[in-house]
Amino acid sequence: MKGEGLISMWAKNLNKHLSQYGFHNLYKGIKRLGKGGSATVYEVLRVTDQQHFAVKAFPKDKTVFS
Question: Is the pTM of this model over 0.90?
Answer without folding.
Answer: no
